[in-house]
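== Polypeptide entry ==
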Amino acid sequence: MYYGVVLSPCYGKVERISINSDSRIYEWETLFILTSEAGKKERVQTCLSGEVKSLEVQEGDYVIPGMVLAYIKEDLFVTGSD
C-alpha cells in the first residue's frame, strides 16, 4: 500500500477544501484553494488518484511551503492520463 502526500506550494491561508476524508480523488482535480501571502489564489492539484486517508489542515489554517495538506492512498492501476 502506497500513500502519497499533497503539499502546500506557498506561504498562505487555506481558503477552500474541495475534498473530505475517505473521498475519492482523480488526477489533476483541484483539492485545495490557498491564498498566498501576496494575495494570489493558488489551486492545489496532484498527479495522484485514489482515496483521501487524512486531511491535515482545515479552512482558515495558515500553511507554509512543503507542509502536508493531505495523505492519499494511491490507486495501483494506470488511468491513462498524463
Summary: DSSP finds no helices and eight strands in the chain.
